[in-house]
Amino acid sequence: MKFVDSVTINISSGNGGNGCISFRREKYIPKGGPDGGNGGAGGNIWIIAIPNLNTLTDYRIKKHFYAEHGKNGSSSNCTGKKGQDIILKVPLGTRIVDIQTKIILIDLISKKQKFLLAKGGNPGLGNTCFKSSINRTPYKCTSGQKGETKSILLELILIADVGTVGLPNSGKSTFVQAISNSKTPIKNYPFTTLHPHLGFVKINSKNSFIIADIPGLIKGASLGIGLGDKFLKHLERCNILLHIIDVSLENQKEIFKNIKTINRELKKYNNILIKKKIWFIFNKIDLLKNEEKFFSISEKIEKKYNNIKCYYISAKKRIGIKKLCLDLKNFLKKQKTK
Hints:
Elements: E1 6-12, E2 45-50, E3 64-66, E4 86-91, E5 94-98, E6 104-108, E7 114-118, E8 149-156, E9 162-165, H1 172-179, E10 197-202, E11 208-213, E12 240-246, H2 254-269, H3 271-274, E13 277-283, H4 291-304, E14 310-312, H5 321-337
Parallel strand pairs: 1-3, 2-4, 9-11, 9-12, 12-13, 13-14
Antiparallel strand pairs: 1-8, 2-7, 5-6, 5-8, 10-11
């Protein structure tokens, strides 16, 4: 299934039904008085967050949604039938934006959270409603109101506690697979991860968290190079980011350069991500050819970024994984208490 995280749709709620002008006509009851019924209300359009959905694919083809119109009122004080509502189902984490006003209408971040996107038109009144002591034969009714018509943007932003960033082939997907139930594809070439994946990390029966694996970034991602930075929005809800860094490079001075590249791309995207808590995760330590040289470089990195925690792991060999997960659990626990 193709991953779709942004789509524009058009919605129209139902019109209200018209009121009716009618007078009671029965044998032996002359001048029975008005009995025109009210119209039915127009159908509403609702949107609801469903936990087991993870893409907006269903809205790629069908982009127009119309609720049913209310029926007109009729004689004998019969009220018209209400128009049927429409309920749109979207993944948890979907943000709804009004295209015309650019206003965020709602962020659906809770299970089964429901929101009224477009209210149906109010019904018209029949002539019974206009009967009074001075007007016993009202020839008056009102029309139903028009429903609302909107163009809205559905934008999926995944909900995860922890997010990963890094260059392609830094071992992000291997790391996420090592600690979670994620089934991200892993190959020996760049950009095997083409869209974000979520993984469930279970520490014990009482503690767990969600981790997000997004496609790798390269220099110029903010300009659309590589897969671009369009998937970075899926990190906006994360409490912490793990910067996965490949330490197996022959020219280990490239490590410094690669860190700067990712930081630059995060900053160019927006200030939200660069201000988040970030930990450096030095991956592939099992492939180090010159450990002494690497650790002299890592000391310089720790000194330059003195407020950032550093971890040394091998996702493939499961080295250092357990301590990192426990520290993440403790960090997230503190965040929740705040």
